[in-house]
Amino acid sequence: MFGYYLHLALRSLRRSPALTALMIVAIGVGIGAAMTTLTVFRAMAADPIAEHATQLFAPQIDAWGLGPSGPNPDHLSNQLDYIDATALMRAHTGERQTVLYKTQFAVWPPQSQLPPYKAGARAAYADFFRMFDVPFRYGGPWSSADDQGRVRVVVLSHELNERLFGGANSVGRVLRLDDDAFRIVGVLAHWDPVPRYYDLRDAFGGTSEDVFLPFTTAIDLHKHSSEGGGPCVAPTPPGWEGLLRSDCTWLQFWVALPTHTEVARYRAYLSDYAAEQQRIGRFHWPPHVQLRNVRQWLVYCHVVSNESRILVLVSFSFLLVCLLNAMGLMLARIMRRAGDIGIRRALGAARAMVFAQCLIEALVIGVVGALLGLALTALGLTALRAELGSDMQVLSHMDAADMLLTVAVAIVATILAGLYPTWRATRVQPAWQLKAQ
Description:
It is a single chain. This protein is of the alpha+beta class and 437 residues long. It folds into 2 domains: 2-47 and 305-436, no CATH class; 98-253, no CATH class. The protein has helices at 2-15, 17-45, 82-91, 127-131, 144-149, 158-165, 215-220, 239-245, 260-279, 294-300, 306-336, 338-346, 351-388, 400-426, 430-436; strands at 56-61, 96-108, 117-124, 136-139, 153-156, 174-177, 180-188, 209-214, 252-256, 289-293. The chain has a 6-stranded mixed barrel with strand order 2-3-8-5-7-6. Helix 2 (17-45) packs across helix 13 (351-388) and helix 2 (17-45) packs across helix 14 (400-426). The two termini are 29 Å apart. The relative contact order is 0.18.
């Protein structure tokens, strides 16, 4: 019977092409607007490391004592200065921990005829790779002994290894960065978490990290942060050593705390550390610290703004308006066919048959509207890429799940919009229609 009803639905839709086109356009435009904003919102709000999101923590320490004039609602900086970051590393209170920051190098390709070029780098401790589940294609991370010895070793990204060595196993080879030679110990598989939660100053793209090296080695080489020295309160003393002694916050710090007991112990340690800094005269204000896991950190740093949430609500409100218009058009179409429906009912068609036929007509409109919505969603994301540039490339794309969701939303929404007009079709009284004829 489905094939028969589908045939009747297609014939019926062809009888009024203008109304059919208007319904499809109304649904397609509403779906396109809603799914464009939802696709970007889902990418921004995605949990980037769901397995460990409640076990990785970013500590904060009030090193400025600014009170109400601080940069955030709780008057804490999003980063740490060198003094506090290295003190937390030496204490090693957590199971795994790392200081990290972004820098850059001039990469000299092994092919001597090619000129050097700039590549983004991430200075970190060896625990970084285990804490954030960084996948390797060849080799592995450097060792803790390499951290302590300030050894010149590096891990390459998948993309840089493809560019320099054609994707071959480059572990053990020597790569020249700036004026120093580094031994390659590992090559990553493709890895690009969205958002880049471990450094939210570069959360959604920007320059990727092609080189990873020990934090201690980067400090030994006087490699400045490529994202600036960070905010400072007091004037920064001159030179590299002056930066390390200053209160400028330019380092990210993460610690792995798998159990609630370890979280409580680390939070107590942070409070004790801040109190000790007050006792020795470095801080002149009451201790003020915080410890947030990945999910709390994303909320705290406003990775998904309130404006984005409002935009999603507005776009789905627009979709609702489009569906109401489509419902009105369906109702007008059915009322124009009241005579045909009445004759079918008089010839013995049950209400369930009329209901099924009209619902299949709504389904056909929903499927075509879904295809139009997919095309408009792709067009909307293309416009976002053109308007917002490369930083939003990673957000403004559709995967298979987004496409399936778009089609499902369009079909379900159209069927729901068609329920009332379909119910009205089943209420047509055959006797009244025959009398009118």
